[in-house]
Backbone:
């Protein structure tokens, strides 16, 4: 007998929820697994309009109200990163399973607190981004283990902020009920800056492939003092230009950057792996596309079409292929399936904590000028280095 | 320092909706005296709710030096008299609804308040109910589309209800009944959300001459009914919206929401009697419930009106439960009576000065 659908509340009806989470999670093909029963956002006009559009029966203006509602099994936290810890904690305290979009918290201490709390209550946390699920990432790990580029020497990965949030997300103003969705928090403390927002993806991918890092050092600061959103000026308070140096086992080094603008590769967020016998850059091995399960789905797309690459995921079928943020949808489905059938997600909170450790320690290294030992690790299947 | 309250009238409503709830205002208020015509009731209430002093004369309360504000919870026919006395004594006032029996009396109260430099907050505080505030936000967002039609109702709700311990006769006296006791809820909500009425027409009837009280201290007593108890009003608002309001005391109840506002894109249903009820919005064939967590578990929350008085006295809060609004609603009630008597549609005439919410401009 199939289990009932997981009754999910979405916390935060911003650009991500409007663009990706809600359209994906209300498609007919997942109705037997997940049911979005409630939305929560203090901007209730926006939340109410989204609920109408997607046939979601309940709207709440505050998380406390949402969590006092009986008919809820789990929440997906899609609020600003600086609020994740507080929101995630409240949800766990209320006995709900939690999916957190992007970076789970901004400190290791907060992450550990959530992990302990979830364990003590037998609740599940899935903290995206779930790069570990992507076949390209799994295949990169295999290629390295097979010695496809000889002996790995170093890696560069990361992402540039650009003007994505203030200029390239039409969901923030087009057709939004009530005031536009202000991206100011991306430039404020806590939780702002490209490391938590974008490099988080690269670091999940990097550590899925190489395992836990051991030490970090770096430089960090503010490069662009002001951003413009519609007619408003946003002062930058969080570092927007950060470059970290990471040490893995056996003297493998990596550069991980979150810059104000500029990417080293045309494949957004992808890592470039240099070895004694070649280079893997994103989905290219020595300049030629390599094979991976599901590659045929991207054959009509350029290797630089990041969205197409991010759609090669088990639940991203049919209509889901037309809807943005498919990878976030897949992360939520990890939690849904875990709650329904008890199969743990490979997207672990301990892994998310390790990425947070890298960012937090990297900022500390930049502030103090001292290389920082990383204190966290996570279970990693590993590969035999050649 | 806490605001010192004197309660005049400590019957069923005071004991159900005010005294047990005042603790939610914490140390912002303290009840220093309670007043009832019945010494037995005054003493009993003072004992049970830990009030230091009781009296049987409201003149004591309005003259007391340890009272800053009077909560006027007397029967309908005494509201204006007690409020005017309190203002003469220099006290701020919270008055149960209706604040007076005629629109003219409201103007007298307004003048007296201005002269005394005192604040008068008028029930019903339905505009402060959390779900009505939410309804206003939804309306302001424009998500219902242009609004042309609305309906309100208040069926039942007049005492005696289950467990009622007082003599309900005042509710059935001439010019009392469900029109003044209950229609004020939907009328305050409708005009507060959608703006004032310019024309009113009504039909009304009296369905019974008397009834016998079934239970409680007055069980077996026959109560004369001297007022119409089945009212249907149709209003044309300044915004152009057509609205109907039904208030009667001859129904077992209602399955319909107490307030429904219909727009071209969405229709919204709002409870005016239960803060636990979500706002329901119907659009595109989907019903979405806006649930609002609130300090009182269920039922009406009259304490919000008292809190509003405290807020206004402490300063920084604009008075929204105004005499101007109460005056407008009483004008509508008088127009409804005149319409029934003369069988025609009544121009409400002079506009009241109460502030029109921004939603109205969008809705109209």
Residues:
């Amino acid at each position: 007998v199939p289990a009932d659908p997981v009754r999910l509340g979405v916390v935060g009806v911003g650009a991500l929820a409007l663009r990706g989470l809600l359209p994906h999670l209300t498609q007919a093909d997942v109705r037997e697994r997940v049911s979005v029963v409630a939305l929560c956002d203090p901007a209730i006009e926006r939340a109410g309009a989204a609920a109408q559009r997607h046939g979601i029966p309940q709207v709440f203006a505050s998380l406390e109200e949402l969590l006092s509602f009986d008919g809820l099994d789990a929440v997906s936290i899609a609020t600003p990163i600086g609020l994740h810890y507080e929101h995630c904690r409240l949800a766990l305290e209320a006995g709900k399973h939690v999916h957190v979009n992007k970076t789970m918290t901004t400190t290791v201490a907060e992450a550990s607190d959530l992990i302990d709390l979830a364990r003590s209550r037998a609740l599940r946390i899935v903290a995206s981004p779930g790069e570990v699920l992507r076949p390209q990432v799994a295949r990169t790990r295999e290629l390295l283990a097979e010695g496809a580029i000889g002996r790995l020497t170093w890696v560069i990965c990361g992402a540039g902020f650009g003007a994505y949030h203030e200029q390239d997300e039409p969901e923030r103003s087009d057709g939004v009920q009530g005031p536009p969705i202000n991206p100011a928090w991306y430039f404020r403390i806590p939780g702002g800056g490209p490391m938590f927002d974008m490099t988080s993806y690269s670091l999940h991918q990097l550590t899925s492939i190489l395992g836990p890092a051991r030490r970090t050092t770096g430089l960090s600061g503010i490069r662009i003092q002001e951003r413009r959103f519609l007619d408003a000026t946003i002062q930058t308070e969080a570092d927007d230009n950060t470059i970290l140096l990471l040490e893995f086992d056996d003297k493998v080094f990596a550069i991980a950057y979150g810059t104000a603008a500029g990417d080293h590769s045309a494949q957004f967020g992808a890592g470039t792996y240099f070895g004694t016998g070649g280079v893997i850059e994103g989905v290219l091995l020595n300049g030629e596309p390599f094979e991976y399960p599901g590659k045929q789905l991207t054959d009509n797309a350029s290797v630089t079409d990041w969205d197409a690459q991010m759609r090669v995921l088990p639940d991203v079928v049919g209509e889901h292929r037309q809807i943005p943020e498919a990878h976030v949808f897949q992360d939520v489905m990890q939690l849904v399936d875990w709650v329904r059938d008890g199969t743990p997600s490979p997207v672990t909170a301990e892994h998310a904590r390790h990425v947070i450790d890298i960012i937090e320690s990297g900022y500390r290294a930049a502030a103090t000028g001292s290389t920082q030992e990383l204190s966290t690790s996570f279970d990693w299947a590993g590969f035999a280095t050649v | 320092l806490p605001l010192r309250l004197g309660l005049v009238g400590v019957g069923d409503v005071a004991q159900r909706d005010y005294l047990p709830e005042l603790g939610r205002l914490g140390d912002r208020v303290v009840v220093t005296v309670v007043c009832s015509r019945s010494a037995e009731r005054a003493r009993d209430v003072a004992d049970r709710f830990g009030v230091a002093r009781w009296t049987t004369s409201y003149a004591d309360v309005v003259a007391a030096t340890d009272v800053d504000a009077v909560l006027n919870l007397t029967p309908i026919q005494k509201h204006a008299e007690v409020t005017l006395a309190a203002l003469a004594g220099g006290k701020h006032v919270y008055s149960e609804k209706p604040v007076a029996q005629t629109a003219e009396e409201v103007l007298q109260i307004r003048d007296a308040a201005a002269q005394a430099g005192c604040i008068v907050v008028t029930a019903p505080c339905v505009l402060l109910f959390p779900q009505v505030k939410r309804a206003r936000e939804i309306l302001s967002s424009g998500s219902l589309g242009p609004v042309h039609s609305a309906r309100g109702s208040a069926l039942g709700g007049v005492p005696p209800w289950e467990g009622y311990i007082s003599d309900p006769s005042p509710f059935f006296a001439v010019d009392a009944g469900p029109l003044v006791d209950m229609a004020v809820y939907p009328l305050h909500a409708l005009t507060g959300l959608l703006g004032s009425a310019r024309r009113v027409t009504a039909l009304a009837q009296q369905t019974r001459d008397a009834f016998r009280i079934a239970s409680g201290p007055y069980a077996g007593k026959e109560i004369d009914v001297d007022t119409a108890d089945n009212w249907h009003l149709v209003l044309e608002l300044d915004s152009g919206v057509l609205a109907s309001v039904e208030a009667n005391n001859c129904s077992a109840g209602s399955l319909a929401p107490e307030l429904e506002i219909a727009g071209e894109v969405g229709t919204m249903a709002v409870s005016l009697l239960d803060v636990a009820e979500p706002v329901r919005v119907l659009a595109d064939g989907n019903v979405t419930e806006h649930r609002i967590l609130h300090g009182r578990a269920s039922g009406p929350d009259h304490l919000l009106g008292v809190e509003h008085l405290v807020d206004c006295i402490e300063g920084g809060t604009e008075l929204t439960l105004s005499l101007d609004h109460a005056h407008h609603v009483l004008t509508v009630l008088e127009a409804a009576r005149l319409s029934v008597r003369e069988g025609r549609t009544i121009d409400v005439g002079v506009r009241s000065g109460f502030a029109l919410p921004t939603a109205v401009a969008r809705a109209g």
Observations:
- Chain B has a mean pLDDT of 93.
- The two ends of chain B are 45 Å apart (CA to CA).
